[in-house]
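Hi R.,

Here are the chain sequences for the assembly we discussed:
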Amino acid sequence: MANETLESGAETIAMRVVGALRDEIVSMALKPGDVISESDIAARYGVSRQPVREAFIRLAQQGLLLIRPKRATVVKKISPTGVRQSRFIRESIEVEIIRRVAGQPGSDAAQVLGDLIAEQEQASSANDSRRFHALDELFHRTLARLAGVEYAWQLIDDHKIQLDRVRYLTLGVSSSQRAIAEHKQIAEAVAKADPELAEIAMRAHLARAETLLTQTIEDFPDFFE
Amino acid sequence: MANETLESGAETIAMRVVGALRDEIVSMALKPGDVISESDIAARYGVSRQPVREAFIRLAQQGLLLIRPKRATVVKKISPTGVRQSRFIRESIEVEIIRRVAGQPGSDAAQVLGDLIAEQEQASSANDSRRFHALDELFHRTLARLAGVEYAWQLIDDHKIQLDRVRYLTLGVSSSQRAIAEHKQIAEAVAKADPELAEIAMRAHLARAETLLTQTIEDFPDFFE
DNA sequence: GCTACAATTCTTGTATGGAAGATCTGCGGT
DNA sequence: ACCGCAGATCTTCCATACAAGAATTGTAGC
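And here is the predicted structure of the full complex:
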């Protein structure tokens, strides 16, 4: 969902707890199925129950926690169909984006994308997988910006968090060379102002997430519904 | 965002307040820019501040409220670019959906859609605009179901709430005849198993929201950012 | 050994009091 | 008349106590 719904500036305790818990969940320090309680987390962070409770509400709305009233709160297991449909949503939107970007020739889009890919190659050579992943995300967000729908990327980003949990389970195994090659194909199609080709390249690029998912389900069945 | 994140069954006060406030906001009883406070709402509903506060948090994450820490909470004004990009998102997804549905011939999709359109014609004849709107929504959700991505519709639904506020401002003016005709074109393309034609019909159908938006901005400029 | 049931102990939900900060008000100075 | 500053009065935020439901445990009875 589109958020940062409260004005920036102040830094409340609740917001800190939200960020900390989200990191723990995405990094799998808190595993799917783990039971947590307001008291536990409050004690662990040295704060009162109240801000923790509010953090739970926010994270539950983001699909990371499941609050069972009067019972307990658990780290939500990953829903395979949920991830697949998130991918469907992402593909739908990104295809539309890439067609737009490739359809407006004469822009500096190809140049910008080329620079990003060069940076990714550096990160890949340096084995800096963290930076590589950040650049990968930036590549896609940049496409959204070039298409004039940056807001749409926020949506994708919110839903991508579930896939990020999956990705974290297979860290380092990702073949960055292949991702770079696919990015190059996309950028090339943009340079040629060929929407059809760009669409094909984008679909192929995003299709890899499916194999990642099925593989991970086999390796960590307990983390999935 | 995909929610109902807390198990159904119990009916807490906070949930009741969420529903009541959401209705008030969508029905424009609470107008964009209106300032509300936890105490106000708590007194108005005869409950404590705590559940109201939690309701505020939920509604803020849904983009209906803006919490300004230590200052106030206001009913969020409608963002024209936000609505436009929501429309972009919706169009991207629904185009993909309709192509899928039209691409799998031999199903009973056309039959199901035809029945829905018939019901809409009844509602239109009876001037039951409320039922008509519900059936319109059902038409699109049914398409998502037929494509096997009902979850995706939930996403659209969550974002559609902003457009619903706009729609409420122009209630009754909607030309239902035209909407029915467009639905018929879509259903016909599905019956012919022609994805290209279905896509064109769907895009034309969704494009009408744009004129609705620009018109409403002119009529109620104070409600927009 | 097994079952029924009650008490204990968890959990989240609600109420209320006060703290911290931001805005508004009014008074005094120039 | 205008500006500055201090106090009153809002707001949301946080802490704490208690309430209510659900799960667990232990125990009595068979």
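Chain A has two domains: 13-75, 80-223. Residues 10, 12-14, 47-51, 54, 68-72 of chain A lie near DNA strand D (CB under 10 Å from a C1').

Let me know if anything looks off.

Best,
T.
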